[in-house]
Amino acid sequence: MPLGHIMRLDLERIALEYVVPCLHDIGFCYLDNFLGEVVGDCVLERVKRMHRDGELTDGQLAGPSRGVAKRHLRGDQIKWIGGTEEGCEAINFLLTLIDRLVMYCGSRLGKYYVKERSKAMVACYPGNGTGYVRHVDNPNGDGRCITCIYYLNKNWDSKLHGGILRIFPEGKSYVADVEPIFDRLLFFWSDRRNPHEVQPSYATR
């Protein structure tokens, strides 16, 4: 059976049997070992090069402070990419798989039917206690439905390095802590159902 066919079947099964139920039941889910080490390393090396070459700029705040960088509120450095840029083949492959996963969710996402995505945001927290205070990705109904995050942190120890993504599910009495470990893909609703924060990072994240 051709590899592409196997991958299609696996992605469809993961979407229908895991991603959709988890989003409906608890509002988020994650997949570990998504790309595998070899391809994941290719994505990591490209992102490291962007960081090394100074291509990332301070993340900006939305809302009343739109366009303003306030590092005590948001400490990441970012770059928006489409995946078709030179040298971004591995990133493009990752984005293609994520697109397929979301596409296979189809009309099963409640009121949502995702037709397109924004560019991908490459983000780096440079350590020194930088994080991102509690916020909602899409508080005002701007069209964003699902936030997808792919983590690239090898040998990450959250007790030592911090950097946990903490989700505060709406109406629930618990919080969900997601460690930003290498080759983990996270999905969650982008709207007010999932306020979240990036806790202070003490290593480059």
Automatic annotation (TrEMBL):
Q: Share an example GO biological-process annotation for this protein.
A: cellular response to hypoxia
Highest taxon, organism lineage: Eukaryota
The reply on keyword Isomerase is no
Q: Which reaction does it catalyse?
A: L-prolyl-[hypoxia-inducible factor alpha subunit] + 2-oxoglutarate + O2 = trans-4-hydroxy-L-prolyl-[hypoxia-inducible factor alpha subunit] + succinate + CO2
| Alphabetical list of InterPro entries matching this protein | HIF_prolyl_hydroxylases, Oxoglu/Fe-dep_dioxygenase_dom, Pro_4_hyd_alph, Pro_4_hyd_alph_FE2OG_OXY
* Entry keywords, A to Z: Dioxygenase, Iron, Metal-binding, Nucleus, Oxidoreductase, Vitamin C
Query: In what residue span(s) does the Fe2OG dioxygenase domain sit?
Result: 116-205
What's a single GO CC term here?
nucleus
EC number(s)?
1.14.11.29
Q: Extract the GO molecular function terms from the UniProt entry.
A: ferrous iron binding; hypoxia-inducible factor-proline dioxygenase activity; L-ascorbic acid binding
Q: What class of enzyme is it?
A: oxidoreductase
Name the cofactor(s): L-ascorbate
Q: Where in the cell is it found?
A: Nucleus
- The membrane spanning regions, by residue number, are none
Q: Which PANTHER family match?
A: EGL NINE HOMOLOG-RELATED (PTHR12907), PROLYL HYDROXYLASE EGLN3 (PTHR12907:SF28)
Protein name per Swiss-Prot or TrEMBL: hypoxia-inducible factor-proline dioxygenase
Q: Which organism is it from?
A: Columbina picui (Picui ground-dove)
